[in-house]
Amino acid sequence: SRTLRNALPIMRWVSPRSAGAHLQRGAQPPLTNNLTIPCDVIFGCTDDHAGRLYLNRVAHFYLIPVIDVGLVLMPRDDGEPGLLEMAARVSVLFPTSACHGCRGTVDRVRAREEDLQRSDPAEYERQKTEAYVRGGGNPAPAVVTFTSEAATMAVNELLAGLVDFRGGGGWTWQRYRKLDKGFERSQAAQPRSDCPVCGSEEYWGLGDIDPFLDRIG
């Protein structure tokens, strides 16, 4: 169908094998004709969990690849100098791959708290006082050399998807780099069958609906 022909070039760019499997299954994600997000790729550079879950849905509803960047600079809690964790992560979000929730890269409880803090600050403070939410948490890291390295990783992942300069068949769904140790590894995860975002094809290419991204609140 025309819908499937429109979707497949994007899917082949992201993952040729996934596109072929999708075609063999005969699935037809309905692409909307009224896209509210007119872009080819999105770089996610948010520090919060709620924002990542939002972009997580955008990738699936609009068939727009999201390259999400994360940076962890976690101080030691034993009084010794140095950092407990010092790492950068780049995740590519798109149908056929596991979403943020299935990868464990977001905390849904933290996301709910962040949404509440934005939408109802008074209620957030009340719940924090009563210990229903966890409060401020660790500050977002902002060390220019490390944030720049993480951003470079994200751009390189886009280039890998476009021209496969690494020779590995395109981009990697998730890349994790230990900044203090100087090594990097790929990470894999499978979509959970009960996941509302990536566990089925219901949301693939659904586009503009009410409520937006099928989110309430």
UniProtKB/TrEMBL annotation:
GO-annotated molecular function: ubiquitin-like modifier activating enzyme activity
SUPFAM superfamilies found in the cross-reference section: Activating enzymes of the ubiquitin-like proteins
THIF-type NAD/FAD binding fold domain location: 32-196
Domain of life: Bacteria
Gene3D superfamilies: NAD(P)-binding Rossmann-like Domain (3.40.50.720)
Signal sequence region: none
Pfam family name, one: ThiF
Protein name: ThiF family protein
